[in-house]
Amino acid sequence: MKITTKSQLTLTKKAEYLTQIITTANVQTLGEQTAHKALKTIYKKSLDEYIGQLLRDYKTDIHKAKQSIEYTFSNGYDLAQLATCFYCQYIGQPLNATANNGELDKQKQPIDIYRACMRTINRYIMQAKNKVYKTLYLQDIDENGELGEYIQIPHKWDIGTKASGIQTHTITDLNKVTQAIKSMNLSATENKILACRLRGYGYDTIAKKMSISKSSVQTYIKRIRTKATAIDLLSKAKTKTA
User: Fold this and answer.
1) DSSP secondary structure string, 34-72?
2) What is the C-alpha separation between 35 and 136, in angstroms, rounded?
3) Is residue 16's pLDDT more than 50?
4) Sign (positive/negative) of CA torsion 116, 118, 124, 129?
5) Which site from 6, 117, 192, 201 is most exposed, i.e. has the minimal number of CB atoms within 10 Å?
């Protein structure tokens, strides 16, 4: 008798899920499900508190929304709205159909609509993290939950702001940030790639935008890491402990 493993069942279930046709009736549900999956995947691997809070808020949104039409959604639900809007452009197609945004997987093959949506959500989360943590991720935490390195702007560069003699909050001294970036002596191409990463673009997208190969992008990123390390800007993302 052939034994079916749990992983095989999971893959089969996912394959069946991806055959669903996107319709006006189910597009919001699919968007909510994809956003939830993206948040769970990234949080499971990163254990990042910011993402964890987004996930908790999102679960609360889904629960509370069923109880009251006057409920005010959190920032976590923005991801569901983003996914829903993304899927709207593919009404009438199955989730496993090829996306039309030109993105490729690691085997240089076009990705499907579902994975393209997951990547879109991931970029949105990374951009939000950039604003909250003042970081620039050099590698994606993608739909598979892979972690990477990031540039961290030191808290010592924060300066207090005062209102009526009372310190209210802190902001980043952008002059110091600018000076630090200049001290890295980045080339024009490295600066452009750094800007692309800040906007949440992946390696394939950057390569396409700059008309260079993905391997060239990876090489430039390595150079940026080296220069960032030299001025103590490079940190390592948290990893899950056993």
Assistant:
1) HHHHHHHHHHHHH--HHHHHHHHHHHHHHHHHTT-TTPP
2) 22
3) yes
4) negative
5) 6
Around Cβ 139, how many Cβ atoms within 10 Å?
17
Confidence check: pLDDT of 43 > 50: yes
Domain ranges in the chain are: 19-133, 134-242
Among 89, 57, 228, residue whose Cα is nearest residue 154: 228
Q: How many angstroms separate the CA atoms of 109 and 105, rounded?
A: 5
- 174 CB-near residues (< 8 Å, 6+ apart): none
Reduced to 3 states (helix: H, G, I; strand: E, B; else coil), residue 219 is helix
| Residues in contact with 17: Cβ distance below 8 Å, sequence separation at least 6, in sequence order | 95
- At 146-205, the pLDDT tens digits run 444 444 444 444 444 444 444 444 444 555 666 777 788 888 888 888 777 766 677 888
